[in-house]
Amino acid sequence: MAPTQELVTAALATVIDPEIRRPITDLGMVKSVDIAPDGAVRVGVYLTVAGCPMKDTIRRDVVNAVSKVEGVAGVELELDVMSTEQRKELQTKLRGNKGPEKEIPFNQPGSLTRVFAVASGKGGVGKSSVTVNLAASMAASGLKVGIVDADIYGHSIPRMLGAAERPTKVEDMIMPPMAHDIKVISVGMFKPEGNTPVVWRGPMLDRALHQFLADVYWGDLDVLLLDLPPGTGDIAISVAQRLPGAEILVVTTPQQAAAEVAERAGSIAASTHQQIAGVIENMSWLPCPHCDERIPVFGEGGGQNVADALTRTLGARVPLLGQVPLDMRLREGGDEGKPLVLTDPDSPAATELRSIADALSKRANSLKGMQLGISPTAR
Q: Which domain of life, per UniProt (predicted)?
């Protein structure tokens, strides 16, 4: 006996759009369902844009879902592309009819997204590696996580996450690619092929940051991490203005010269009235390969010194969240797009990073079952 329309539609409701992360039935992506008497099913599906990079995933998931319905003898899929009007309806469904002014959803009343701006005084302290592994650990624990690669000149997050896809644009919304269940956006995703530099001045940097925050469809995130450029330049100031509720995570090494510069990076909170979530000391020691003794390659005490100095400056306790040991696999994972917390979660560095991520996550409220200002206005 041939399957019913209701059973096939229910199966299609289990197919999640890989970019928007909602059922295709909720998004108006199901064009048609035709069922022949012999059980052959023909499904029409709308793609959001022509040349959708995820069309093969959608094709596979639709065929697999419908094939499991009892009585289905075969599945034929026809892909079409949404019209301009359909894309506008989809945008309204996802973001609401908010008019021409783009709002940053994380600043809206009722937003429960925890925003962390990961900062450092200077480059080379492993700030991006820490950002990626914290995000991967949080995502692996079940949180909905996003990363903004705000280091416009020195963007490296896509490589470290293995995010090779380019963003998809639906009207004036940008759908961020996903890697390891993390939504990510970076200026490197919009550049032509090759390692061409970004040569922008302050106003363009601020505009790019605003677009990453307001134009990208992030959905309901539990945590958003921003990988800031080193120092206290234009982007750090823009983050304070665009995201006044963002909490700063300061990354340093034990070396006193690095710690002094990191202290300056954290002290910006005194001027911007932001909260510092804590200090993370990276490259704290090298485990001896023979006896497991800790070798302080870059000295000792820098992270605690930064935490203590910022506590005095801000008049509020700034904790040292953790000390991450040197591990060659951490660097290798960054080069290969495979975060260490996922590939070797029991290694000393991964264990410490997961502990830091857990501590930060426990202070955040989950968004499960709750809605933000960017939630759909119609179902």
A: Bacteria
Check the annotation: does 124 bind a ligand: yes
Higher pLDDT, 128 or 274: 128
The reply to whether 122 sits in an annotated binding site is yes
Q: Is the pLDDT of residue 2 over 60?
A: yes
| Rounded distance between C-alpha atoms, residue 221 and residue 198, angstroms | 29
Q: State residue 238's pLDDT score.
A: 86
CA 31 – CA 43 distance, rounded (Å): 7
pTM, full prediction? 0.77
The domains found in the chain, sorted by start residue, are 5-95 (3.30.300.130), 105-362 (3.40.50.300)
Binding residue per annotation — 127? yes
- Per the annotation, does 93 bind a ligand? no
Residues 6+ apart with CB under 8 A from 174: 167, 168, 185, 211, 215, 216, 217
